Structure formats: structure tokens, C-alpha cells
Amino acid sequence: MPTETEALDIYKSSIHFDGLNIANFSRDIFEAWHAGGITGVSCTCGLWEGLRGSLANVVQWKEWFEEHSDLIVQAHTVADIRRAKESGRTAVLLSWQNTAGIEDQLSYLRVFRDLGVRKMQLTYNTQNYSGAGYTELRDSGLTGFGRQVVDEMAKLGIVCDLSHVGPQTSEDVINYAPEGKPPCFSHVLPGGLKEHPRNKDDRLIKLIASKGGFIGLSQFGPHMAKGNDSTIDDYVDALDYVIGLAGEDLVGIGSDASEGHGRPSDFMAWCNKDKGYARQLTPWGSQKVVKPLGPLADRAQLAVAMARKGWSEEKMRKVLGENWLKYLERILGE
Question: Which domains does the chain have, with CATH numbers?
């Protein structure tokens, strides 16, 4: 097994893909990714916004790709992510945490796919045209329109994420999704270690894995077994727990890093209200949240923690990023 020192060398040569970042994006964050050796990141560029706001977010990212081309590059395919590793930059996979941006128009999916939004969460916390989020008062499952959205996303090569989606809607999507195009939980924690509505229970984790779907683990302290006392070693324990349910090839990192955002802040308050302005959904916009992976610039410490747990080099490389890339290759295509 690698020593902790050897783990740092393994990390440097590995692909590290983070399945969800909602940081306060700026050059400071892009430099932190570079310092942390993060190869690729799925970045939230849509949450409550409709068509116009979602387009504005993509425009902002296009400007960043041009202004900070020494640090970041847009990823449309897995090949783009591997090329970013070779060039010493971080590949950004533009992602939504809601399908609010398509409003009620299926055809808008193609427009955003062509702009490079290649991963979309079906719902964010509450009900939309497609289904229910996990805070909704009644989860009535995947809607008829939602079935069409799932079909179109699969056809267009857009990843379907179910992290904030309610349990019944999640189960419906997992069972309905076209063969070979399974959904993912990009940033979740296991309910088997801590029961919480936002966490996914063992049955759902096993179900999504049985279809070839992917599970990325969040580092959201309050939803971990020890709450805000959780450490990076506890995070690796959570990875091992989910690997025990889903296997070693379908598990990776989805940190849900929010570096640069204060708590409280206007942004967090907006995230935590239905549609961005109505009822408060969770208390986390203003309460302390420990994220045990630490600063983005220190992400190599994750490999050190894996070594402390006796992980093999192969297992480390897979969970750090290779597993994500194999899954993404199936969905994104060439």
C-alpha cells in the first residue's frame, strides 16, 4: 500500500475530477483548483434561473474561459478533460442544479447542450415540471413531461443528476432512464451512515449502481455521521461505505465545494429559498457548515487520507477521477 508521501505523487499524476462545485467563481478559485491539482470540475451555472438568467450565466462562463485561458478550459467530452491534465489547466464541465432553465420547452435542452451545459439535475429541492425535490411536501414522482426530459437528455448526451431530487422521483428516473444512459447522484452522502432527507438510502444507492449509475460523495459536514466534527478521514470512511454498496468502479468525488461564499450571504439565502425568493427550505444558508476536505488548494490531502486507510494505488486513482471519466464517457459520447 502507498505511504502518505507516495500518495502525494500518485495524486499529482492522477486525474482528479470533482463532480460538483458551487464556489464563488473567480480567478482566485481557478488558481485554487490549479494549486490543488484538480483536473476537472462540474460547475454549477444554473439553479433557480429561467431561460434568460441561465443564458446570462453561460455567457459569463464563456467570458471567463477567454479571460482565464491559462487556468481553465471548457470541457464538452472526456477527451477535453484528459487534455486539460496534459496542459496543466482545469477542465470545467458546465452544469445545472435544476432544469428551470428550459422552462417548459424541451427544445431548449439542445440549445444549452450545444453551449456546453452537459450535466443537469432534474429538480432542485422542490417541485418543477419534471418531478419533486427532496424538500417537497409530497413527492409524486417523475411526471410525464419529466419522462420526455429524461429521454431528450439521454439522446443529447446530457448527464441526468438526481442529488437534490426526492426519493420517489429518483427511483422513477433510475428505473425509467434509457438503457446505457443511467443517471447519477453527483454530490450525496449515504443515509446508512446518517439518516437525513438529503442523503440517499442504501436501497437507492444499490438501485442506481445496478443500472450502472454513478455516486459522487459530498463533503457536507452536517449530513455526515459526526456532523460538523467530521474529518477528512471520516469522508474516506464514507467513500468506503458506499463502495461496499455500489462497488469500486461507480464511486467518486462530488465535493459540493462552496469556497468563497459566506454564511450567511445573499447567495446562500437565494439558494435556500424556493424559487430563490419564497419559503426557506433549509437552515444551511446561515448556519455553520464544516467541509472536511478543506480548501480547494489542499485537495491533495484527500489522497493522503486514502493512503492512511490502506487504499491501493489503483483504488485511489479510480475514485479520484477515473471512475467519473468512465461514467461520463458513456453519457457524453465522443
Answer: 16-297+315-332 (3.20.20.140)
Q: How far apart are CA 161 and CA 43, in angstroms?
A: 13
Cell numbers 484527500 correspond to: 302
Q: What is the DSSP letter of 201?
A: P
- CA–CA separation, 293 vs 221, rounded Å? 10
Torsion on CA atoms 232, 238, 243, 245, rounded to nearest 10:
180
- 3-class secondary structure, 254: coil
The residues pairing with 90 across neighbouring beta strands, listed in sequence order, are: 72
DSSP string, 153-190: HHHHT-EEE-TTB-HHHHHHHHHHSPTT---EEEEE-B
| Rounded Cα–Cα distance for residues 262 and 248 (Å) | 35
Residue 222 has pLDDT above 90, yes or no: yes
pLDDT at 46: 98
Angle at the Cα of 138 (from 132 to 142), degrees rounded to 5? Answer: 35
Give the model confidence (pLDDT) of 187-211 as tens digits: 999 999 999 999 999 999 999 999 9
Residue 87: burial class (beta carbons within 10 Å; 0-12, 13-18, 19+): exposed
Find, among 19, 246, 267, the residue nearest to 119 by Cα: 19
Q: What pLDDT score was predicted for residue 194?
A: 98
DSSP secondary structure, 44-111, as one string:
E--SS--HHHHHHHHHHHHHHHHHTTTTEEE-SSHHHHHHHHHHT-EEEEEEESSSGGGTT-TTHHHH
Q: Rounded CA gap, 187 and 218, in Å?
A: 5
CB–CB of 203/169 below 8 Å? Answer: no
Q: Of 175, 192, 178, 95, which Cα lies nearest the Cα of 131?
A: 175
Task: For residues 222 and 182, give the distance between their C-alpha atoms in angstroms, rounded to a whole number.
Answer: 28
Q: What angle do CA 320, 121, 243 make, to 5 degrees?
A: 35
pTM: 0.97
